[in-house]
Amino acid sequence: MDFPRILTGNWGVPDSHRLTVARSRGTYGRLPKALGMTPAEITTIVKDSGLRGRGGAGFPTGMKWTFVPPAEKRNGKPVYLLCNADESEPGTFKDRYLMWCDPHLLIEGMIIASRALDCHHGYIYIRGEFRFVARRLEQACEEAYAAGLLGKNILGSGHDFELSVHVGAGAYICGEETALISSLEGEKGQPKLKPPFPAVEGAWRSPTIVNNVETLSVVPWLIENGAAAYKALGTEKSPGTKLFSVSGHVRKPGVYEIPMGLPMSQFIEEYAGGLLPGRTLKAVIPGGSSVPVMTPAEVAKCNLDYESINTNAGSYLGSGGMIVMDDTTDMVAALTNLLRFYAHESCGQCTPCREGCGWMYQILCRVRDREASEQDLVTLRELADNIHSKTICFFGASAAMPVQSFLTKFRSDFLDRVQGRGAGAA
Amino acid sequence: MSHSAPTAASRGPREWSPEQRAEIDKILARYPTKKAAVMPLLWMAQDAWEWIDLDVMRLIASTLELPPSHVHAVASFYTMFKKAPTNRYFIQVCHTLSCALVGADKLVEHIERRLEVDEHGNSKDGLFTVLRVECLASCGSAPMAQINEHYYERLSPEIVDQVIDALRAGKHIPEPRPEADQWTFPVS
Ligand SMILES: Cc1cc2nc3c(=O)[nH]c(=O)nc-3n(C[C@H](O)[C@H](O)[C@H](O)COP(=O)(O)O)c2cc1C
Ligand code: SF4
Ligand code: FES
Question: How far apart are CA A425 and CA A140, in angstroms?
């Protein structure tokens, strides 16, 4: 398929992470143009492009940027730009490669975004397990500082932007934007109720934009090629290309950039290499472990864009972290595995989430081990329904959706495991 | 944390070296508040002194003019800050769904058997600590483990044995195969 590689164009180029190589490939070439534009002009391009946040929620990026109050309403407070590089949602592993293969693209995107946001301080918040990636980012920042691309008066434009890398230390919840902000401030990484939204009151109570690594890495291309060129790719409501990270039972797991709207089964077949010989598809989790699971019939109907997956399968494109499961998969064990994750990672602030995740996990362990009754499945369902939308942050729903969807869409797999219902079957 | 022995006795009061002080000044310059430096300083301290005991927390608290209880709360919240020592090679095996689908459980059982680990995950030879962890964002190259800072991907019991043998033989931790530069993983 012929389309511009907006995010992966430099992957595989030797030393693509070094400044000289990056520059020879055009990175930072968009900066003079961007720095010559007004902040509003940059934001307009991003808005018109239809770019949506790649961290999972798919919120329109340009619109988010306009939520930052104008300078006269900020009481002298600075604006902060935070890059969310926490990448902890099971099944998602695209940002790691983006930062590893092309750190300068992200830095260029952040400089342009900082200009649009009248922002002079940025941080890349990266999960602690990625310290080897953090070192590479730090090296890239040093190179950029030495070349006058970061710091004071970038390329003589009068724009200042200081950028540093902040390393987390092992807490999934820090990927949630308000938790990420708390963590950056030196607190426990616990989410806060919104509003206020970070764009109005975020880090150090100042306006703060949090964007995903992939989102920010798209920005330089938009400056170079314009909003219309981006809109020409993908679908009307989900324009552009997107990174998909595919894992599980496929022959070529990995990270692929494709234009949005590609049929899902074509993606699995042509990009991910299809299933292993002799296997058939059982289920797919399309957008990171938190989104509802899909059946093969739903997969056959869906394209890889936000609307199609939502309309045809009641699920979400999310982060683009796709987990493929074939007919050898024990669906009860799979869900139990996920709930162990959620029980482990709940930050503990909200009772429904803290208690509910642990409880759901325990019930699932009993179902898995054939020690549960049909009534336990009812309880499980009620627990999930009682967590969804009743917590401070979206983590609660993230734990509930897998349970609700597995129980609904793979009901017989669960019934077969409870007592009195085919308990003897393998 | 569940992976290590109960907190060992205090190792005595700590002081920063001149190099560390210079690094701290650089770190503080990046943030509008001193409090924001608490995680960077915990990392620095862990790099230097392997794990975070109460004396280390006190040192960080006085450096950043924070109550020691705050440093303690932060250090406790984040699982990667070690509150007790681990052995020299810390093997963290991912057992979340994508890894589990392709054999993570067998892999970790193999490692635990091979290293004869106790209930804290410490190996009989005192060289390794083994811990099961959640998704390390390497799901496409599953099953995988992180050994100290390095990612080891597409592991099989045979490859793990080679790595363990090399480490036991006193060889430097072998560089991971360069899969960080590769983003598709054809199954052979
Ligand atoms: C529990 C939870 C975990 C999240 N983890 C991440 C993450 O690891 N990376 C990320 O970019 N966004 C994550 N998000 C979404 C962020 O809160 C936020 O919406 C996103 O970083 C905004 O950037 P975007 O608009 O560019 O997508 C998470 C959200 C929740 C509720
Ligand atoms: S929903 Fe869960 S993770 Fe989110 S704030 Fe509440 S307890 Fe913490
Ligand atoms: S599930 Fe093991 S690295 Fe993601």
Answer: 57
Q: Residue A323: enclosing H or E segment and its boundaries? A: strand A321-326
Chain A: residue nearest B81 by CA?
A: A169
pTM assigned to the model: 0.96
Q: Report the side by side order of strands in the sheet with A241-248.
A: A254-259, A241-248, A321-326, A281-285
The answer to whether residue B82 sits within a structural domain is no
List, in order, residues 6 or more apart from B186 with CB less than 8 Å away.
A251, A252, A273
Phi, psi of A335 (to 5 degrees): -70, -40
Q: What is the DSSP letter of B187?
A: -
Which of B99, B101, B105, B185 is the best mutation target for the ligand 3 pocket, counting ligand atoms within 8 Å of the beta carbon and taking the most? Answer: B99
Q: Are residues B93 and B126 in the same domain?
A: yes
Tokens of A266: 């074509």
Q: How far is CA A190 from CA A178, A316, A400, B43, B70, in A?
A: 7, 25, 19, 20, 14
Within a domain: B93: yes
> What number does the ligand 3 atom closest to the CA of B98 have?
1
Contacts of B136 in chain A (CB under 8 A): 129
Alpha carbons A332 and A368: distance in angstroms, whole number: 6
Tokens of B96: 């979340």
What is the Cα–Cα distance from B16 to B160, expressed in whole angstroms? 38
The pLDDT tens digits of the residues spanning A90-114 come to 999 999 999 999 999 999 999 999 9
Domain architecture of chain A: domains with CATH = 19-231 (3.40.50.11540), 241-326 (3.10.20.600), 331-418 (1.20.1440.230)
Count the neighbouring beta carbons within 10 Å of the beta carbon of residue B65.
8
pLDDT digits (tens, 9 = 90+) for A28-84: 999 999 999 999 999 999 999 999 999 999 999 999 999 999 999 999 999 999 999
Q: How many CB pairs under 8 A join A and B?
A: 159
Backbone angles phi, psi at A174, to 5 degrees: -65, -10
Number of domains in chain B: 2
